[in-house]
Amino acid sequence: MKREVLAPALLGVVLLTGWAVTAGAGSVLLPTPGAVLASLVASLSDPAYWGYLALTVGEALGGALLGIAVALPLAVLIHRSRWAAAAVNPFLGATQAIPAIALAPLLVLWLGYGLVPVIILCALIVFFPILISAVVGLRHVDPDVVDAARLDGATSAGLLVHVEMPMALPSILGGVRNGVTLAVTGAIVGEMVMGGSGLGTVLTVQRESLDTAGMFATIIVLAVIASTAYAAIHLWERNSRIIDSLQRTREAR
């Protein structure tokens, strides 16, 4: 068995065993793994729960797509324009330090409650890691390849589409991978602060009723959603690196 599979499996067994021992010792606030599993099965058997889940996924996906749609053109502008880079760079670090929970009340004042402000919050969370990753990826494109493409008569748009973006794609996808996972967090925070009908609302109800097993079950569902998105984008990123490596090998020949 490969180490990449065995190592996390062993760690999971250790954590699960420690969890079971701690909960079995009489902890009031920590449910047993069996209680969490029972709550998870009960939740997934309820059709209404799938509606909550679908809404949260939709909010996270909508926010992620909006963040990507704004971040990538801005990254290209920063890469191509020294004036834009000089204007934006000083603010990137400061804006990343602003916690999402601090933005949520402002979005409520500006946009009210409901679906739109939650999606905007997700987009803001996704925007910065994707922007920075895209800028870094574009700046590290091999200049020799760019110069060769220019000598072959590539236009500015053609250079971007056929050379710079494909070569920067692994870095961009790394930012997208982190951003999409953060979008799930943004959806939950947004629903708990700005209202909604997704899993954030389910968590709020479970918290108020002291249903710790239900909260653990919902957190597990959220972790699975984020992990699935992370793994899918990581696979895409890995394939893009392989394709890029093959293309470079062919060009070298």
How would you characterize this protein structure?
By secondary structure, the chain is an all-alpha fold. Helix content is 87%, strand content 0%. The chain is built from ten helices and no strands. It has helices at residues 3-24, 33-44, 47-80, 82-96, 100-111, 115-139, 143-151, 156-194, 199-208, 212-252.
Report the span from N to C terminus.
36 Å
Shape: globular
CATH class: Mainly Alpha
The low-confidence runs, each spanning 5 or more residues with pLDDT under 50, are none
* CATH fold-type name: MetI-like fold
Number of helices: 10
Q: What is the H/E string?
A: HHHHHHHHHH
Q: What's the helical proportion of residues? A: over 70%
Task: Give the radius of gyration.
Answer: 22 Å
Number of domains: 1
What's the total number of strands?
A: 0
What would CATH call the architecture? Orthogonal Bundle
The main pleated sheet reads as: none
Q: Could you tell me the strand content as a percent range? A: under 5%
Q: What structural category characterises the helix and strand content?
A: mainly alpha
On the 0-100 scale, what is the average pLDDT?
83
CATH superfamily: MetI-like
